[in-house]
Amino acid sequence: MREELSQPPTNSLSSDTTDTVFTIATKTGTRYVNSIRDLYYTLITIGIPPEKISTTISTVLNKICPTINTDSLKLPKKARRNT
Fold first, then answer.
1. What would the DSSP string read from start to end of 12-59?
2. Is 73 domain-assigned?
């Protein structure tokens, strides 16, 4: 199921190589898109510490597609606590 974005992505990552073009949208407005939130909580569930999630995702993306520059990719750094 494809997630519909009500607003244009405020942060996205693109790669344009001779055989592949794609964009990874991480946020709409001030909220992370559902797929990023789902990935974040899945990684926590399998034991990845919240402070290492951003690095883990960047590393995986760079190993899959070395031409990607993930320096500007905005990902959750830690879980927000409601107090």
1. EEEEE-SS-EEEEEEEETTEEPHHHHHHHHHHHHTT--GGGHHHHHHH
2. no
Residues of the domain holding 38: 9-64
CA 59 to chain centre: 12
Task: Tally the domains of the chain.
Answer: 1
CA distance 28 to 10: 5
Residues 33, 27 contacting (CB under 8 angstroms): yes
Give me the tens of pLDDT residue by residue for the chain, a chain 83 residues long: 445 555 555 555 555 555 666 677 888 888 888 988 899 999 999 999 988 998 898 898 888 888 777 877 878 776 555 54
The answer to whether residue 34 sits within a structural domain is yes
Q: Is the pTM of this model over 0.70?
A: no
In a domain, 70, yes or no: no
